[in-house]
Amino acid sequence: MDREQALVIVHEYVKNLNLRRHMLAVEAAMRDYAQFYKENPDEWGLAGLLHDFDWEVHPSLKQHPQDGAPILRSRGVPEPIIRCILSHADHTGIPRRTLMERALFACDEVTGLITAVALVRPSRSLQDLEVRSVRKKWKNPRFASKVDRDEIVRGAHELGVELWDHVERIIYAMRGVASELGLDGES
Asked: Using CB atoms within 10 A as the burial measure, which of 53, 86, 87, 152 is most buried?
């Protein structure tokens, strides 16, 4: 399974542009962490890219991501990536055992918060977004109220990284794909 094959799956199952952008953001964050930990960025990137591929067809916790796993298996996605995707959702009961699994959990929710902060900036860009802006918005529970801040804190803790260092790393990772995310100030 390579990235192009994964993108075929994404385009087949995900029609919502914002969901696709979220998956690309998580992919970028996962690739960055893989390089940081000297792991395989292609494998980690696939986990990030595919982690929510089935949300539109299985939009409930009773189905997502567990009902997507057979689809991924039929498409030849390696089992470690499928297990990683299954473990990113607490309700599946699949414990996060590997560094890749902990990284996916840590990267998922925080990308949404960073995106929300970038979207309310005058520049609508990640290029000038700093951690202090995210911290400021973090304190307002009404801002991006659907973002689970406790999950972000838990994700950083499980990965063994300091929360604001984690946020900074994700911002920098997302900057590398800012134009694909519509967060380059040009889109």
From this structure: 53
